[in-house]
Amino acid sequence: MSGSQQGGEGSGSQGEDWRNIADQTERRKIQNRLAQRKYREKEKRKREDDARIAENQQAAGSAYAAPNARDLAPNANPAGLPWGSVSIKHVLEAGKAKEQRVQQASREGSATPASARRTTQG
Known about the structure:
mainly alpha; 61% helix
């Protein structure tokens, strides 16, 4: 490797090889310039990553929706066990109801101050 490529944190130009510069102020300027460039590149990558993550989360948020019992055909009776099976509508309705209860309890729990929760819980 050439001398300019070994020093100065992967610097590309020969003017940024600070190891061979005797003047401390000039050396510090070059080091600061390199550090600032590295910081800007790191921040740019971070912004790009954050934007990509936000876009992925937005796309994933609408990718799955729990089925609704009303979406099933009214006379749909999927083949099950010969003696009958659990109604899929019942399963979906029970799951939706439980999900709504949990969400409601979560909202009520987070809206209640901690001191009030302690006194009501016993």
